[in-house]
Structure formats: structure tokens, C-alpha cells
Amino acid sequence: MADRSAEHWYPTAAYLYTLHLDGPALAWEYLRRHPDYRRDWLRCRRRPEAAHAWGLRLLEDPNLDARDAHPAWHPDHDGVLQLHPDADPPPDAHVFEFWCIPGYKHVIHDGKRLLLTARWPGCCVRLALSPGLADGMAYLYAVRACAEPCTHYRSITAELGKLATVDGTVPAAAARSRPTPAALLELHTLQALDATLAGASLRETAAGLFGAEAVAADWYTDGGLRSRVRRLVRRGHSLMRGGYRRLAQLE
Fold first, then answer.
1. Which structural domain, as residue segments, surrounds residue 221?
2. What is the pLDDT of residues 62-80, one digit of tens each?
3. Measured between alpha carbons, how far is 47 from 39 in angstroms, rounded to an integer?
């Protein structure tokens, strides 16, 4: 077995940030690894139709991980807060105040409206700002008409709850609970996917994920560890080659 310990995918610590990503951010982690997407970024980054084929409004740099990238999915997922001017506001209506939105802000224009992403420790909120909305203007939230509007409403209220808990100040850090089994599954899947894309064998991949001692003790034909790594690799390729759309709520 070759020594892969110096390769970029080998240290699990490099993937710890993925433990606290939401669905759209995880979707980006899988998409940015797709070889064809990386090719399109180099050749077609200024063509909107190339982005739409991947479920994006604009192509995003695949060299940026989910901590620095801000992919604009098409169509918007349920968690995006859509803000529009209020044509008939009451006297005590709340007004839009850009600088009162907490966190580090990133704004892009997708050709139709501004997309605002605000991040602070433990949270990420995404907003779509109507072209007619200006700072200091009364506004309202829009819910897309559908057969199950209550489901969309619950998604929006969950996002609004994030803003309500901040109360004007952004914490310098956030205490986080132990990662869930689902979060650990995504970490291991991404690490296994990177290993195979780099040419590592299943056994080499297992050593990076679970340690050489675990491989020496439990690596045999159709054994538990071998089967587990095989499933992780298969899952990673499936998510990279289209399954990410489910995580981004595109289907």
C-alpha cells in the first residue's frame, strides 16, 4: 500500500468544517468536485446557460470551499428569504436596514436581483432582494405559491428565527454540539470521494479515514470495513454526479 499521508485528502481534520454545513452548502461541496463542472468553470464561466445546466444562476469558482463560496442555486431553495417592497405599509412597519443584518455579508447580482448571504458563527442566512427594495423602505417576505405552502412557510420562519436570536450583535464564537451521525457521514463521504478522485485504492482510502490499525485488523474480503468504504465511495460519486441537487432542494 502506497504512503498517501502527504496528500491533500488524507488528514480528516481538513474536513471538519463540513460537519456544520447545511444542505445547499453541502451540495456545493459535491458539485465543485465534478471534473466536468471544473472544466466548464475554465471554459464557460461567462455563459449563464452553462451555469443553469448545473442548477446554478452563475458559475462559482470550484477552488473555493463552502466557507468562501456563495453559489446562487436556480431555482431558489425554500430557505432563501425573498424580500419585496411593501406597497401599502402600516405606519409602524419595519423598514429594511442593510447594516442591521448580522454577520459577514456577501452580495452578488444574478442579473435580476441582489442575493445576500450573511454568515456568523453557527448560522448562515440567505436573502433575495427585489430590485425595487431600497434601504429604509418598508418590506415584506414572499412565499412562493405551491400545493403545500405551509411547508415553505415553516422553512422561512426557521430562517427568520436565526435573525431573531442574534438581537443586533454577532457572537465571536459559538458552542456546538457533538456532530450527528448524518454530519459524520457527509465528512467521510467527501473524504472518500476526494481519495478516489486522487487515484487512491479502497484500502488506501480506508487508512486515511479510519487509520492503518483499523485496516490491518478488519480488511478482508467482503468485511465490514471494506464494504463501508465501498459504500462511501459509491455515495460520493452519486452525489457529485447529480445527487447534490437533492441537497440544494432543486428537485
1. 12-18+177-247
2. 999 999 999 999 999 888 9
3. 13
